[in-house]
Amino acid sequence: QSLPWLLVILKMAKALNRGAQKPVSISMGPPDLSDEESQANYMPDFLRCEACTGISERFATTLQKNIDKSKAVKSGKKELGEEKLLEIFEGICSDKEWNGYGIKEVNGKKRIVYPGSDAEDVPGIMQGGGPWPRRLSDMCHSYLGEYEEHELYTTYVQKKTKGLKKLLCSSVCRSSSKSSHKKKKPRKTEL
Which residue range or ranges hold the DUF3456 domain (predicted)? Predict the structure, then answer.
């Protein structure tokens, strides 16, 4: 079972040693997590921006898959219905949907890693499971509490992934980078 991992590590070391005058050593291990990172019920502040980016990309990917299922919706003649949008977003935010997400140390910095992230293919050991799916699910549900599903959908249709990321993450990413400028987002109205 561990033989394939050993082969991958040996191949990486061999590739890194090509052209090097001195042999290069590789050391890998799971990220060293603080108590907050490993046990808290919430997403640590310094990871919230990257987590939000992962959530917005997940929204975009799932919406596009559903748009592509209907020629009329894909062509812009129809929209996805309210019931379908509720089903889509509730499905996205369920805990089990976040199992492929986790944390990895990349160049000495802890990063949220998810399918399609720039840190996904960087060599290293990702720690998934544990509190990470629940934290991402909780953040995902908080966005559904803040924005109407139809608003998220129309933002994606009009502005694609970049628009969703701007809508959801601009204030989160500003506060993660210690900026004092916070912009209030429109609140979801209940029936």
Answer: 49-172
* CA 42 to chain centroid: 15
Phi, psi of 29 (to 5 degrees): -165, 170
What average pLDDT does the chain have?
83
Strand partners, 103: 112, 127
pTM: 0.74
Query: Domain spans of the chain?
Result: 43-176
Q: Is 103 in contact with 122 (CB distance < 8 Å)?
A: no
Average pLDDT over residues 46-68: 97
Residue 104, CB-side half-sphere exposure with 13 Å CA sphere: 19
- CA-based nearest residue to 168, from 140, 190, 131, 189: 140
For residue 106, the tally of other CB atoms under 10 A from its CB is: 18
Q: How confident is the model at residue 182 (pLDDT cuts 50, 70, 90)?
A: very low
**C-beta contacts of 150-156 below 8 A and 24+ residues apart:** 150/82, 150/85, 151/186, 152/59, 152/63, 152/85, 152/89, 153/63, 153/79, 153/80, 153/85, 156/59, 156/60, 156/63, 156/64
